[in-house]
Design goal:
This protein is an alpha/beta fold. It has a single domain, classed as 2-enoyl-CoA Hydratase, Chain A, domain 1 (Alpha-Beta Complex), CATH 3.90.226.10. The strands form 2 sheets. A 6-stranded mixed sheet has the order 1-2-3-4-6-9, sandwiched between helices. Strands 5-7-8 form a 3-stranded mixed sheet. Helix 1 packs parallel to helix 3 and helix 3 runs antiparallel to helix 11.
Length: about 260
């Protein structure tokens, strides 16, 4: 029997739908999943669509990099592993920012670590009221990736972004809406209803005008700046992942997780 695909992908009725499909691990990120995500995103860009919906199967949207998988890699090989994983995640974030159609992210369960970037790169975010967002970097021993320093400060302010990350504060769904991270918070069972209402609205809009609006709100110079910030995140992540404190942090985190 063949294994379930790590990413589910479908295009129908003018909408692309991509679902992270590693539910037994809360859709935590591993290189194979990120590669499959980037492959699906590359295909989406070829089509003239009303929207792209990004979601996660199971109990969570995504909980960031799989710490157990990281810890299982010998320390001398973690840098190469991280370059593929984090570099691939950053590629996905940039591709989402470059999409010619609006990106909608469906968020439920805890969202931790670099998976926040898949939320920050969206135009519209429907978030379950029970969801929380948290960095965990200073607990696990990692350096921030996925846009926590490249995208979040411009959204919520540098001081708040610093407090959340240094003290590992949780962001509730309500706070995510108030801060501009999410568009609407609702009960998990109503997320699809909210998203379908947005899609119905988008179907009635002029696609060229929507595309022009997105491009003007995210001009090339901003994209270049974000790419540079993500590169700095990757560089610091690669340096940190090889340290003894990262090794100890992962072991401690896994012992209590």
């Amino acid at each position: 029997m063949s294994a379930e695909p790590l990413v589910l992908f479908d295009i129908a009725d003018g909408v692309a739908r991509i679902t992270l499909n590693r539910p037994q691990r809360h859709n935590s990120l591993v290189p194979e999943l990120v590669a499959a995500l980037n492959s699906a995103l590359s295909e989406v860009r070829k089509h003239d669509l009303a929207a792209l919906v990004l979601a996660g199967a199971g109990k969570s949207f995504s909980t960031g990099g799989d710490v157990a998988a990281f810890h299982a890699v010998p320390r001398g090989k973690r840098r190469a592993y991280a370059e593929v994983l984090v570099g691939g995640l950053h590629e996905a974030i940039l591709t989402l920012l470059d999409m010619p159609m609006p990106v909608i992210t469906r968020v439920h369960g805890p969202v931790t670590g670099g998976s926040l970037g898949l939320v920050l790169a969206a135009d519209l975010v429907a978030i379950a009221s029970s969801t929380f967002i948290a960095p965990y970097y200073v607990d696990v021993g990692f350096s921030p990736d996925g846009g926590w320093t490249a995208l979040l400060p411009e959204r919520i302010g540098a001081a708040r972004a610093r407090e959340i990350q240094i003290l590992n504060r949780h962001i509730s769904a309500g706070a995510a809406v108030a801060y501009g991270i999410a568009t609407e918070a609702t009960a998990a069972r109503q997320l699809d209803e909210v998203i379908e209402s947005w899609i119905a609205t988008l179907h009635g809009k002029v696609r060229g005008s929507v595309r022009a609006t997105r491009e003007l709100l995210a001009p090339p110079e901003r994209r270049t700046e974000v790419e540079g910030r993500l590169r700095r995140e990757l560089d610091r992540f690669l340096d940190q992942i090889e340290t003894e404190e990262a090794d100890a942090g992962m072991a401690k985190f896994l012992a209590v997780a």
